[in-house]
Design a protein that fits this description.
With 302 residues, the protein is of the alpha+beta class. It has 3 domains: 61 residues, RNA-binding S4 domain (Structural Genomics Hypothetical 15.5 Kd Protein In mrcA-pckA Intergenic Region, Chain A); 83 residues, Pseudouridine synthase, CATH 3.30.2350.10; 101 residues, 2-Layer Sandwich (Pseudouridine synthase), CATH 3.30.2350.10. Helix content is 18%, strand content 30%. It contains 6 helices and 14 strands. The strands form 2 sheets. Strands 5, 6, 7, 8, 9, 10, 11, 12, 13 and 14 form a 10-stranded mixed beta sheet that branches.
Length: 302
């Protein structure tokens, strides 16, 4: 259990906004704290919409998180490679990588616990084996560690950028250039804490993405993205920053979609890494999923 106490240096129109900024939590998470009686202003329980005035004393208690168990589930997943150290999985669109935010079943971890004989324990019982993630509605490749030694090696490769990840995305509109590099800082959006955004250097972390046009269509561009860093929603935020959000991305792009999609057209199609035990370079590719190809087949090349 953690306790926090703040003296408001300036006013704030809502208590939930004030607390989310102090604790770096989403407003929905803050609302749960407030509804649970864990927040007091000047010694009295408050509401999320309550205004905070200069000098107010804000007391917050964050209860210890319960550690739920993760059960193996016989869920079909495509494992394109496996040995004693690692597995490479082609995650389908719509599957969450690990439990959280109310997701306790149907995740990739649930499926991995059923399919694989072992997973590294570095990330605990919630995220066993998970070295890196891709969004729920992004499809494609990710590597899973089957033991702690492999996990540390793979995590270091990602940090040192020797593990390379390449994505394909269909973007709204046509880019002016055929390629380039986007370098920004990404952090929580000051407007909506659920979203990420390009922010000043002191408010976020460095995010670097290379992009290259693969094919141009009337009103759309197929692009390749190579990650140099691994920030949350990095490609989606950078695509928006370019002025050409990913097709199907209703969070960072158009709310009204031309195609009937269940998520963004963003696919992790290539993964390169050094094997933790052999030291050999390994390269994997996963073809575009059928729903992505169906959209491309409807477009006219230019």
């Amino acid at each position: 259990m953690d306790n926090y106490e703040y003296s408001a240096e300036s006013g704030c129109p809502r208590a939930d906004i004030f607390i989310s900024e102090k604790l770096d939590k989403t407003r929905s998470a803050v609302k749960r704290l407030i509804d649970g009686g864990n927040v007091k202003i000047n010694g009295k329980p408050c509401k999320p919409s309550q205004e905070i005035f200069t000098g107010d004393r804000v007391e917050i208690t964050v209860p210890e998180a319960e550690t739920p168990s993760v059960k193996p589930e016989n869920i079909p997943i495509e494992i394109i490679y496996e040995d004693g150290d690692l597995a490479v999985v082609n995650k389908p669109q719509g599957m969450t990588v690990h439990m959280g935010n109310g997701n306790t079943e149907g995740t990739l971890v649930n499926a991995l616990l059923y399919k694989l004989d072992s997973l590294s324990g570095i990330n605990g019982v919630i995220r066993p084996g998970i070295v890196h993630r891709i969004d729920k509605d992004t499809s494609g490749l990710l590597v899973v560690a089957k033991n702690d030694k492999a996990h540390l090696s793979l995590a270091n490769q990602i940090a040192e950028k020797s593990c390379r990840r390449t994505y394909l995305a269909l973007l709204e509109g046509n880019l002016k250039t055929d390629g380039g590099t986007v370098t920004t800082y990404i952090g929580r959006s000051p407007v909506d804490r659920v979203k990420m955004a390009v922010v000043p250097p002191d408010k976020g972390k460095l995010a670097v993405t290379d992009y290259k046009v693969i094919k141009r269509y009337e009103g759309f561009t197929l692009c390749r993205f190579d990650l140099h860093t691994g920030r949350t929603h990095q490609i989606r935020v950078h695509a928006k920053h370019l002025g050409h959000p990913v097709v199907g991305d209703t969070v960072y792009g158009l709310k009204k979609q031309k195609f009937k999609l269940e998520g963004q057209l963003l696919h992790a199609f290539r993964l390169s890494l050094i094997h933790p035990s052999t030291g050999k370079e390994m390269n994997f590719e996963a073809p575009l999923p059928q729903y992505f190809l169906q959209v491309l087949s409807k477009l006219k090349e230019i």
